[in-house]
Amino acid sequence: xxxxxxxxxxxxxxxxxxxxxxxxxxxxxxxxxxxxxxxxxxxxxxxxxxxxxxxxxxxxxxxxxxxxxxxxxxxxxxxxxxxxxxxxxxxxxxxxxxxxxxxxxxxxxxxxxxxxxxxxxxxxxxxxxxxxxxxxxxxxxxxxxxxxxxxxxxxxxxxxxxxxxxxxxxxxxxxxxxxxxxxxxxxxxxxxxxxxxxxxxxxxxxxxxxxxxxxxxxxxxxxxxxxxxxxxxxxxxxxxxxxxxxxxxxxxxxxxxxxxxxxxxxxxxxxxxxxxxxxxxxxxxxxxxxxxxxxxxxxxxxxxxxxxxxxxxxxxxxxxxxxxxxxxxxxxxxxxxxxxxxxxxxxxxxxxxxxxxxxxxxxxxxxxxxxxxxxxxxxxxxxxxxxxxxxxxxxxxxxxxxxxxxxxxxxxxxxxxxxxxxxxxxxxxxxxxxxxxxxxxxxxxxxxxxxxxxxxxxxxxxxxxxxxxxxxxxxxxxxxxxxxxxxxxxxx
Length: 492
Prior knowledge:
Helices cover 58% and strands 16% of the residues. The chain is of the alpha+beta class. It has 2 domains: 2-315, no CATH class; 349-461, Tick-borne Encephalitis virus Glycoprotein, domain 1 (Sandwich). The protein has a 5-stranded antiparallel sheet with strand order 2-3-4-5-6, with no helix packed on it. The protein has a 4-stranded antiparallel sheet with strand order 1-9-8-7. A hairpin with a 3-residue loop joins strand 8 and strand 9. Helix 7 runs antiparallel to helix 9 (185-211), helix 8 packs antiparallel against helix 12 (249-271) and helix 11 packs antiparallel against helix 12.
């Protein structure tokens, strides 16, 4: 059905025959349904633990909890391709359905998205088929890494995949709209804003997931680079900027190609299970220069949006366009706050302490205020194959208790071995508006522990301002859709 959609869609776009284009669109609908059924079949095989499938044996074990078994659909590169196809197919279905029937923009958008869908489905079917069988099923599967067996990963991973896949929709709309004569900016801008917001949410979850991972203590701000969402977000930002202003058609088309390329880079990095050198790059001079350069670009984008709105004197308190303009202003301000918070988070204060149960120690925070930390106990908690050593620390500042902070080291056991096959250290976090208290466990026994204490300024504002930026972008997309509900007559 993907091949049907691509062939007839391109034929209809080239010849101008609406019937061929509409047949191609129905092919996209059918291919999306079948891809969704394939993903559901893979999820069922994972949930039931059918180890006759190579993919199932590679990503689940009998000790893997059910939610993470289903989440293994997008854990491996082969399943990720299937999810990519589902997101792209559904995006193409919605995009073509919302464009005016019989226009050149609708024909070419549907045809090119169908061609891309065909390529993804071909890779999933012929190259890395997730339904390959094993000649002899193993006694147990390999399971998943411990870092993926966390609730935040169940949301962060599929959201990032889907958002990056959907970026193809406004990219194609921008390129084909800029090269044609049909009105395209409103539709492309709505899609660009939605993708920008989804990718922003994925980046927030990337940061949150790595923020609590002790192995990423100094590099958690690079998490979105590691996951590829930062590249796609940059492409979505470019599309939001281009579609919000009257640019020359060649510049808009070039921006569409660039955004599509950045989204593809992000998907490729994620499909390849990440960028192995991200830690080394984060500590290198080139990496720091790239980070500061990217931060300057983000600030310039947000400031240009605010200055452009002020210069144009956009008003209309009751109009949809006025609501969209104000929502974008909120999004720009929130983006600037996120950038400032990321800079502030780089000036953390770190202390190493060793405590016995019942001991207390005074540790200064970022602002020089002493905190009192006491080790209340070390516990071992086991659930199936996962065993966690949890360290409970009581924190107090200026005579006021901040409650308990629990840091842990999780160990994964498999088979009859007494040694863990995987370990992960998770930070204990006490959040505050000015700074966060983070505690990581180095070593722990039944009565004492070695801890790394970090005070991270501004970390909460990354989450608060980031969420505000995402919600404001969704509001702007909805208001832009209402403003463009009655488009002008387009060419047929």
